[in-house]
Specification:
208 residues; mainly beta; 5-stranded antiparallel sheet; 0% helix; globular
């Protein structure tokens, strides 16, 4: 429908301790405001990096950081996906169960893409073992591995896969979905998680 979608941040204060809300704005084709929706953080919100993708029915899916708890070195970050209809009605939300960042073993959605049916392919990285409920679990081969989760149009987890190499930290940068429902992930590979690092670019394709 020619709608323009913007995802950003909103804050009532000017310092880093002020909670920051994720903000989704829909503009009509002529640039006039159609609607806006804000999400207040759960906990001590600091900085938020929301981004939005548009589905086949002109619906929006936004990724955002939903809250912070703890302090430096012990912070738990909740990163969520939320859907909104073309008229701004909130739909499903998928957060803590699948898109957490916890110290030690972490799992967070860096990027995501929508396929032609509106399913969300969420790219991220994890270490250790990643529990996936009825789908079993994934186990990292390297220091951190790439993982992709597929969420259907109701927000339910339907599939997951991972890729890694021994001794490498992998950090995904972007994700795309091809015509056969494969996820293509690009990003950076590091030789260690601390100290001097060698960096390399990688691209990998995960199927189901």
């Amino acid at each position: 429908g020619g709608r323009i979608w913007l995802a950003g941040q909103a804050s009532s204060g000017g310092d880093a301790s002020t909670p920051v809300a994720a903000q989704l704005v829909a503009l009509a084709a002529d640039g006039s405001l159609a609607w806006t929706h804000g999400i207040t953080p759960r906990g001590s919100g600091l900085f938020f990096y929301p981004f939005v993708r548009v589905g086949p029915a002109d619906e929006a899916v936004m990724a955002y950081v939903d809250g912070f708890t703890g302090d430096a070195g012990t912070t738990t970050v909740v990163r969520s996906l939320g859907s909104f209809s073309a008229t701004g009605v909130p739909g499903w939300t998928n957060g803590a169960s699948y898109l957490n960042d916890e110290e030690g073993e972490f799992d967070w959605g860096n990027q995501f893409a929508l396929d032609h049916a509106g399913n969300a392919f969420v790219g991220g990285e994890f270490s250790g073992s990643l529990a996936l409920g009825a789908l079993g679990s994934l186990t990292a081969v390297g220091l951190t591995d790439v993982e992709v989760k597929v969420l259907d149009t109701s927000g339910a987890l339907r599939a997951a896969g991972s890729w890694g190499q021994a001794g490498l930290d992998l950090s995904p940068h972007d994700i795309a979905v091809d015509s056969k429902q494969n996820a293509v992930v690009v990003g950076w590979a590091y030789t260690s998680s601390a100290g001097p690092q060698d960096e390399a670019f990688f691209v990998t394709k995960l199927g189901w």
